[in-house]
Amino acid sequence: MIPLRIKVEANADQPFVVRLRSFEADAREQRTDQLNPFDAALERVGPEGAHYVGAGGPIRILGIDPSKVDGDVLLVNPRRGTADRLIRSSSPHNTFLVTERCDQVCLMCSQPPKKHHVDLFPYFETAALLAPEGATIGISGGEPMLFKGQLLAFLGRVLDARADLSFHVLTNGQHFDPDDCEAIRRIDRGRVVWGIPLYSRDPAVHDKIVGKAGALEQLLENLALMCRLGSQVELRTVLMRPNADGLPRLARFIASTLPFIRTWAIMQMENIGFGRMNWKTLFYDSSEGFDVVGRSIDLVRGRGIDAWLYNFPLCTVPERYRHLAPATISDWKRAYRGECGGCKLKAECGGFFEWHPASHGYSNLGAIQ
Ligand code: SF4
């Protein structure tokens, strides 16, 4: 698995953000012109680690090849001797976890909520401004909109300063209200996609999945508000036993009532957090019961709405739907299995989450020859 946290030594008391830069020997002389005050340039590499020097002082990176972290933006915690790779410059999968608090308790939550919260927005803002050209940065939680004042201001400032960046924000959609309209209008809405879960048209099923009474009603009200604001919405439906049969009904509802959405994503489950705890009762074998998925996708796409399959191993999807199943599992948590050896689709397939159980649950899975 790609490490998101690395070991560092830095002579500082407080956390700080730094971008690591390596220069070819012949470019070293011009490097001062190219360095940002948050940059640290590679000086030398030895058995004791990689030494960088920047305006903030020296820093030593341990246990990882400098070529793998060139351009990365780190949040260094000098007291712990660690750094979080907030932006990995070579990856399209960079996400800021803004909080672990949440007001829902979803049955399959991969990141179960915690009460504790540390405000890292100032670090995230610095990091975003140092991101590579054209990056899309993910925002997730917990529920990021619990801190909507800071979040909306952060998005507005970063998007104003960097015309090339865009954001994908995962939110439960419970916390938009008319008082937020002004702040949302100030954001360039063309560069923010809101990923919002909707599990069922049946309020009893949706509310039970998210562990919150009245959640569906509130969500639909807020989706209407986002439609009026012209926000870009990606609806996300994790496929599980409790909502699988109702998927075609949900598809009809999306096609008739929510046609303004940008995308509908039907997603396979992740076996971690509450998802692992409830796996036996929730996991739906879509390789066996693809019919409800296929009908739902056809219905929505037939009305001109984009619909996709996220986190589905390609061999579990009938051939005619495989082009709708991109490799969505982030690079740092993606894994393949023994069965994948020699599979001709491996290059395009997103495989499995690293923590997917050995008894994978799919009746139909295996290398495509
Ligand atoms: S065998 Fe592995 S690589 Fe091939 S389609 Fe299935 S999951 Fe993907």
Task: Name a few traits of the molecule.
single chain; 369 residues; alpha/beta; TIM Barrel; seven-stranded mixed beta barrel; 22% strand; binds iron/sulfur cluster
Outline of this structure?
The protein has 369 residues and is α/β, with parallel strands linked by helices.
Give an overview in words.
With 369 residues, the protein is of the alpha/beta class. The protein folds into two domains: 5-86, no CATH class; 94-353, TIM Barrel (Alpha-Beta Barrel), CATH 3.20.20.70. It is built from twelve helices and 16 strands. It has helices spanning 31-34, 66-69, 121-129, 148-161, 181-186, 203-210, 215-229, 241-244, 247-257, 274-277, 279-282, 291-302; strands at residues 5-10, 16-21, 39-46, 49-54, 57-62, 73-77, 82-87, 94-97, 136-140, 166-170, 192-197, 232-238, 263-267, 307-310, 334-335, 352-353. A seven-stranded mixed barrel has the order 1-5-4-3-2-6-7. Helix 1 (31-34) links the parallel strand 2 and strand 3 (39-46). The relative contact order is 0.09. Bound molecules: iron/sulfur cluster.
